[in-house]
Specification:
Elements lengths: L1 H10 L2 E6 L14 E2 L2 E2 H11 L3 E8 L2 H10 L3 E5 L11 H13 L7 E4 L9 H13 L4 E7 L18 H4 L16 E11 L14 E5 L11 H13 L2
Parallel strand pairs: 1-4, 1-6, 4-5, 7-9
Antiparallel strand pairs: 2-3, 6-8, 7-8
């Protein structure tokens, strides 16, 4: 079994893309923010470098400072200056990923898979990344996505802002029946920490919503996705106290 896993791992050539924009809409200068002694940029690079399964690492950014810092501290990292068109808040980071793959193809560098290493998940480390890749290989999947349990079952949530508790019943009508409470199941969310997909799937619509894309379950404490100062403080608290 160990020999098989090694063979499957070596067969894949995985590119790690770290997409780091200059500006962030909700948390200023987020990517260069110090998180427990290291910037979020550094932590993402370290995760990719320590992975046993990553072939190459490319940094995609519209910031000369971010590109300069990436090259200064880490050897053998490919830099890609991102155009303004790919740096606004509307464009999906996957457009930057596709740009990186196309850029490297011109350099005669080909890969089987690409992993998007988001800077906003500093509690995800190389072990999580490697476990997810090994699971993808073992199940012969086309890709894999990190998930975690939600803070509460989705049956206790609503898409619209409620004016009263009665409004929850509009979307969750079964709450009227108390005997069904025990049947409420745990719900899950995409946590943003792990995104790995075959190069062929980059061309597909809704890249990750296919039967051959698997799921890698992570603990909630490793799944903090930093978008706000509140998220940042919570993640720092977890890291410092080793929860």
């Amino acid at each position: 079994m160990k020999i098989l896993k090694k063979h499957l791992t070596n067969k894949n050539k995985i590119l790690a893309v770290i997409a780091a924009k200059k500006n962030s809409s909700r948390l200023h200068n987020k990517n260069l923010k110090n998180f427990c002694g290291k910037t979020l940029l550094n932590r993402a690079i370290i995760t990719a470098k320590k992975s046993k399964n990553i072939k190459d690492i490319i940094i995609s950014s519209d910031s000369k400072k971010i590109l300069s810092l990436s090259k200064k501290h880490y050897n053998k990292i490919i830099l890609r200056h991102r155009s303004k068109r790919l740096a606004n808040n509307i464009i999906s980071p996957w457009e930057a990923v596709k740009d990186c793959v196309h850029f490297l193809k011109k350099m005669n560098k080909d890969y089987t898979h690409v992993a998007l290493i988001q800077l906003t998940s500093p509690l995800r480390d190389h072990k999580h990344l490697d476990e997810a890749i090994n699971l993808m290989n073992k199940k012969k999947l086309s890709g894999i996505v990190g998930i975690s349990e939600t803070e509460c079952p989705k049956t206790w949530t609503t898409y619209t802002k409620p004016n009263s508790m009665a409004d929850f019943l509009i979307e969750n009508n079964h709450l009227k029946k108390r005997h069904k409470f025990k049947k409420i199941k745990t719900s899950y969310k995409i946590n943003g920490a792990i995104y790995i997909v075959s190069i062929d799937y980059l061309k597909k619509k809704n890249i990750f919503f296919h039967k051959t894309i698997g799921m890698y379950k992570m603990q909630r404490k490793h799944s903090i996705d930093i978008d706000t100062e509140f998220d940042f403080k919570i993640a720092e608290l977890i890291k410092k106290n080793k929860f």
